[in-house]
């Protein structure tokens, strides 16, 4: 591996471990046989340097068929005993809302999920943000939203959307919060499940879209080739217009249940290192906002009863807008 990626890999792994590993606790890294070994090595070394009692890696052989996948019983048992599990499987595997997560949350353990596990992404962009600065910025913004009655986002491209606040806003960073038991790395957003039925106005997605399929599979949206205009009244999508990207989104919605047209989330990006790339890192960029259509009852992971909403759907569809201005209870705020 060239020197630059090697150094950046060590820095990114340290950013994850330094804020999450508690002195003396057992740390488990769960990876898959299609994952880059250098990533696994870096995570184990960083956990050890951060003071872990033990740092162990479990490598899962990739099955031919991923349908109805369940993690091997020894991996589940190890995660139930480890204080912290770092999930570094490839994106082929079910992650975050899966049997491994349910088991370790039930056991009172913590999990950090690597969002951009491919090495070429992990060593760049969002993973290199200073973890303490990111945590502070995100917690401050989430705290301001939590204390508010309403949040408005607007942009020069036509976004002007208002939602009401009825539950706490979740700071999502690389840090596994104690109440949720979950952190995603890299990340950076203030994540709100707004009051159901409260979304009013227009959201123009002009950057990126991601579809989380909770019950089946289907196409992704990725980088948007043209803006998608979404109109909301009473929390429901009432109008969808645009070009090719809008038609792709319409096809995803047509194949979903009716609740996939409900506004489920408002996310405010806080990571100044995140890049405008064609995967999940896009929605963490400072100065962006994203909405999600569909499911929100799982938001919050172990603390879904606090942060999650009441909408259940077979889709969770994120859509990102650039150049966002934020108003909290009518006052402009910096992200």
Layout: helices, strands, pairs:
Blueprint: H1 3-18, E1 26-32, H2 37-49, E2 54-60, H3 73-81, E3 84-88, H4 99-106, E4 110-114, H5 119-122, H6 131-146, E5 150-154, E6 160-164, E7 170-172, E8 182-185, E9 189-192, E10 200-205, E11 208-213, E12 222-223, E13 228-233, E14 236-242, H7 244-254, E15 263-269, E16 289-294, H8 304-307, E17 315-321, E18 325-328, E19 331-333
Parallel strand pairs: 1-2, 1-3, 3-4, 4-8
Antiparallel strand pairs: 5-6, 5-18, 6-10, 7-9, 9-15, 10-13, 11-12, 11-17, 13-14, 15-16, 16-17, 18-19
Helix pairs in contact: 1-2, 3-4
Provide the descriptors you would attach to this structure in a database record.
335 residues, alpha+beta, 2 domains, seven-stranded antiparallel beta sheet, 8 helices, globular
Characterise this structure.
The chain has 335 residues and is α+β, with helices and mostly antiparallel strands. It folds into two domains: 3-123, Rossmann fold (3-Layer(aba) Sandwich); 131-333, no CATH class. 24% of the residues lie in helices and 30% in strands. The protein is built from eight helices and 19 strands. Strands 14-13-10-6-5-18-19 form a seven-stranded antiparallel sheet, with helices on one face. Helix 2 (37-49) links the parallel strand 1 and strand 2 (54-60). The radius of gyration is 19 Å and the shape is globular. The mean pLDDT is 95.
């Amino acid at each position: 591996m060239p020197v630059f990626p090697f150094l950046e890999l060590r820095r990114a792994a340290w950013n994850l471990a330094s804020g999450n590993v508690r002195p003396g606790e057992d740390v488990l890294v769960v990876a898959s046989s299609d994952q880059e070994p250098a990533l696994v090595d870096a995570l184990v070394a960083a956990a050890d340097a951060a003071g872990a009692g033990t740092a162990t890696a479990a490598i899962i052989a990739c099955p031919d068929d991923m349908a109805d996948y369940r993690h091997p019983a020894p991996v589940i048992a190890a995660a139930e005993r480890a204080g912290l599990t770092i999930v570094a499987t490839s994106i082929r595997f079910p992650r975050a809302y899966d049997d491994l997560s349910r088991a370790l949350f039930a056991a009172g353990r913590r999990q950090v999920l690597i969002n951009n596990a491919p090495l070429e992404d992990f060593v760049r962009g969002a993973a290199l943000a200073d973890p303490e600065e990111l945590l502070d910025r995100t917690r401050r913004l989430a705290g301001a939203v939590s204390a508010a009655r309403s949040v408005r986002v607007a942009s020069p491209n036509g976004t002007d959307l208002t939602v009401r606040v009825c539950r706490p806003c979740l700071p999502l960073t690389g840090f596994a919060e104690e109440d949720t038991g979950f952190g995603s790395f890299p990340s950076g957003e203030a994540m709100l499940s707004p009051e159901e039925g409260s979304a009013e106005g227009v959201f123009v997605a002009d950057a990126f879209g991601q579809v989380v399929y909770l019950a089946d599979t289907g196409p992704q949206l990725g980088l948007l080739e043209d803006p998608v205009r979404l109109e909301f009244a009473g929390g429901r999508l009432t109008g969808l217009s645009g070009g090719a990207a809008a038609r792709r989104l319409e096809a995803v919605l047509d194949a979903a249940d009716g609740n996939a047209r409900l506004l489920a989330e408002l996310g405010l990006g806080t990571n100044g290192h995140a890049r405008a790339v064609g995967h999940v890192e896009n929605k963490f960029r400072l100065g962006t906002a994203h909405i999600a259509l569909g499911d929100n009852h799982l938001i919050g992971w172990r603390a879904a009863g606090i942060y999650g909403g009441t909408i259940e759907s077979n889709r969770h569809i994120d859509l990102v807008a650039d150049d966002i201005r934020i108003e909290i209870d009518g006052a402009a705020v910096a992200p």
